[in-house]
Amino acid sequence: MNKVDKPDAFDLGAMRQKASQAATDPDTSNGPTEPVEISALARQIAGQYSDVNYSPSIIIGQLRFLEFFSLFAIALAANFFFALAPYDHLMSSAINGFASAALALVLMQVADCYDVSILRTPMRFMGRVLASWMAAVAMTALVNLLFFTNDAHYRMVLAACFLLGAAYLFIERNLIGFAIRRWARNGVMERRAVIIGGGKPAKDLIRALEQQPENDIRICGIFDDRNAQRSPDMIAGYPKLGTVAELVEFARLAHIDMLIISLPLSAEARIMQLLKMLWVLPVDIRLAAHSNNLRFRPRAYSHVGAVPLLDILDKPIRDWDSVAKRAFDIFFSLLALALLWPVFIGAAIAVKMNSKGPVFFVQKRHGFNNEIINVLKFRSMYTEMSDPTARNAVTKNDPRVTSVGRIIRKTSIDELPQIFNVLRGDLSLVGPRPHAILGQTRDKLYGDVVEGYFARHRVKPGVTGWAQINGWRGEIDTDDKIKFRTAYDLYYIENWSLLFDLKILFLTPIRLLNTENAY
Prior knowledge:
By secondary structure, the protein is of the alpha/beta class. The protein has helices at 6-9, 12-24, 40-48, 56-82, 90-110, 116-120, 126-147, 152-186, 199-210, 244-253, 268-278, 319-354, 403-410, 418-424, 446-449, 466-469, 479-494, 498-511, and strands at residues 191-196, 217-223, 234-235, 238-242, 258-261, 284-288, 301-304, 307-313, 360-366, 372-378, 428-430, 440-441, 444-445, 462-464. The protein is 50% helix and 12% strand. Mean pLDDT is 81; it is low at 1-10 and 26-33.
């Protein structure tokens, strides 16, 4: 095969599709799902990275909002303090201020003024920032002078607006630069990475990353299946913390952002084997490409400085998408509480009057990144017969279920208290349904039936989901039912959008009318 054809043969989309299919293929669903015990050193290092770090894109987005509204406010202040009749020109000043601030952000974006490396050293690039602001004010002034007003006093207001805005940007950018440098030292603003693979390729990759002047990658350790003879326990000053199987548990304990596979492209079979193990984690997966002579399309790469990384899998619902989804959850949860509070009160009274015990039932279930969360439900069973582990699934005409319980289970009213889980941040309104930690189909745990089962936990679980509105709700008593649920959940994760969430949310009440599998 020639070099021109090779990049097409190593197709990233096909590789991703293969990994997804392998996860739900019954012929390959025999991998171990029990957590692998990690070494004391790995556990200690994971504890150092247990705190959540802040995404650079989130911080930069917040900076854009700050600068836009600050420059807009400065334009209004310039009109108020320097215009002869500020209230007469309030509307025009607001329009001009909005236009100047918006143009400044666009020009600063074009000039790369929001790049992290530039933000860290603001004085070196202050000329770009001030030139962008000057050009924005100048363009706004030119439009006004040509089409609206030629008042000499108005030019003084524009000059004051520029000078105040320039002073603000100078001070603000230096303070932001100081903060970013401090956050980088303290680990608040960084991307935490793990290297997969050892030996010379890993050493060369680490050295290349360390040579980048504005590197935001923090290497947390190395994982490799090879023994100490083929892969030393210490590589370029970083310890080898265990095998790839142990990495899955390590990444769940630590807040890891990226996995970098340090293997040649020719080892496609080994890379696929690694992906089948690692794609269940909510992280970016990259393949080191600095030592490969092959070159793919530019959009296939991400870079750390000048070091190219081949993008294989991305973390789902990340950065501003996660912010948008959280806002969606809060808005519709509060709306649901405002509309359904009579149902809450009626269900609580009915549960309390029907049988002894608490109104609510708390069950431990798997949440985001396989963490254990406490999920609220209206109690539907007799207290002395309740099963917090859900090892024994509820079946048709189950004697453990109360008479009120049968009604609220069929109508899914028992799930409504999970709206409080959504507001608390444990759940999302829409997502893969959280299953009990010991949920099983007859004699096998769900994770033993479907190898890619835990990939459902790459996003927050939901009160409702794509599988549920497609008929996959109720008892899971066969292997096929959990396989189909998992397939629908993975489809949702790969195709997520706010419109998709909205579709599922509005279809849920309609699909709940079908109570065939709910009991």
